[in-house]
């Protein structure tokens, strides 16, 4: 079954972007292998979402790797002593400085595991939902970073060195606005109520005021829609 | 205490090479932060050795990170269904092909964690004991790989982007033969009986016939010495 399909490893956090990327990889005809991480994040709602998304979008396999980035400290996403910032609207989010929710070297670590799995699968395709437009100031979401990673990866692996399997890191969202991402996902049948993006959920529900909630909410608003993760508290707007 | 020393993250497997590197970093005046991994390897003797080495060489901190590369399969070092190759002498080891003991993307994964810790510590120095001469055919031990990694890392991090902290990956052994590495370590006071390099230990002792045992044994022999990890069974040669 699916034996002649090309395999791809897709980094899947369970959020809006990576879910859209999984739908795109599937639409492009890949047999998808979804990869998530339990990395010391303060909440696990996104892993529950990732499992739901992987099943709904027909991933051939979904692996959750345990790594503990919290052992190093330094980010509000993994360190309980640092507070996640909250704002009233997305316009208040500074993109000039790197936010406290940045996890040191996170995409570098995640891509390294994707590379290991791709090599084992005999796959030359890794998908990641980074975005250079509303990337919230994370350095490891920029195109020049991805290009440098790809170059390094092709020197790192057995297959790359033997020239048999040139690794490509696919970043289908890199030039899209949040609204364009959502539109693409909706065209491909994504139901965004499966997803979870909030940095700081309250009783398992999106807080609506962290940077991640505000950016996705604004994306839906630009399409005249309400973010389904807010819908039960915003039903008047539907 | 040590407040004005520059900090370095040193990848420490507990083997001969990484132990020598830790001694070199210390000799160069760094406050050393030793990083080891429990990565699904078939035996844990090397982690016991790493702990001993970190203490003996005065590391400020030693962290062992749990990651499970075995979930992806594909290497004799993490997969019980694949056999570690054994030979009678180091001359029989092929360097033309990449051996089955290669773990997919291992150094890429390890360096990524080192990068995360370095960023959190405010360190711009990572040490790794790769070697381009008797590197046993691993692609991620070559200088061009290390250079590409360094370039990528400087695009990945907050400090790299802000230009405050340019990451340097130090590879003090890259041009050394095994014998030269051992000589350097001995000059710096390393006792190699602390270390463990064997891929396939029997009852916690070096097998003397895997590639790793044979390469280090030949290094000691070139200096007219007996590898202390073999000494109890080779005492006639001391």
Provide a descriptive summary of the structure in words.
Two copies of one chain form a homodimer. Chain A is of the alpha/beta class and 238 residues long. Chain A has a single domain (7-237), classed as HUPs (Rossmann fold, 3-Layer(aba) Sandwich), CATH 3.40.50. Helices cover 34% and strands 11% of the residues of chain A. Chain A has seven helices and five strands. Chain A has helices at 16-27, 45-56, 106-121, 143-156, 158-161, 178-187, 211-222; strands at residues 7-11, 31-38, 61-66, 125-127, 168-170. In chain A, helix 1 (16-27) links the parallel strand 1 (7-11) and strand 2. In chain A, helix 1 (16-27) crosses helix 6 (178-187) and helix 6 (178-187) packs across helix 7 (211-222). Chain A is globular, with a radius of gyration of 17 Å. The relative contact order of chain A is 0.17. Chain A binds chain B through residues 63, 65-69, 71-74, 98, 102-109, 111-113, 115-117, 119-121, 139-140, 142, 144-145, 148-149, 151-153, 155-158, 160-162, and chain B through 63, 65-69, 71-74, 98, 102-109, 111-113, 115-117, 119-121, 139-140, 142, 144-145, 148-149, 151-153, 155-158, 160-162. Chains A, B: Keywords: ATP-binding, Ligase, Metal-binding, Nucleotide-binding, Queuosine biosynthesis, Zinc.
């Amino acid at each position: 079954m699916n034996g002649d399909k090309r395999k791809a490893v897709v980094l899947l956090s369970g959020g809006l972007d990576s879910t859209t990327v999984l739908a795109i990889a599937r639409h492009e005809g890949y047999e998808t292998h979804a990869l998530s991480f339990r990395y010391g994040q303060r909440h696990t709602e996104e892993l529950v979402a990732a499992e739901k998304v992987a099943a709904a979008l027909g991933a051939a396999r979904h692996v959750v790797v345990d790594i503990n980035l919290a052992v190093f400290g330094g980010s509000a996403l993994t360190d309980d002593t640092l507070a996640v910032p909250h704002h009233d609207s997305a316009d208040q989010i500074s993109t000039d400085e790197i936010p406290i929710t940045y996890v040191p070297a996170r995409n570098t670590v995640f891509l390294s595991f994707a590379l290991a799995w791709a090599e084992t699968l005999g796959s030359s395709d890794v998908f990641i939902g980074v975005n250079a437009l509303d990337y919230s100031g994370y350095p490891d979401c920029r195109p020049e970073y991805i290009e440098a990673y790809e170059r390094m990866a092709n020197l790192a692996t057995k297959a790359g060195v033997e020239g048999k399997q040139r690794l490509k890191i696919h970043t289908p969202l890199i030039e899209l606005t949040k609204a364009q991402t959502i539109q693409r996902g909706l065209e491909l049948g994504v139901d965004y109520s499966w997803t979870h993006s909030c940095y700081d959920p309250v009783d398992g529900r999106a807080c609506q005021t962290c940077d991640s909630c505000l950016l996705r909410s604004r994306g839906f608003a630009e399409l005249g829609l309400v973010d389904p993760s807010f819908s039960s508290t915003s039903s008047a707007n539907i």
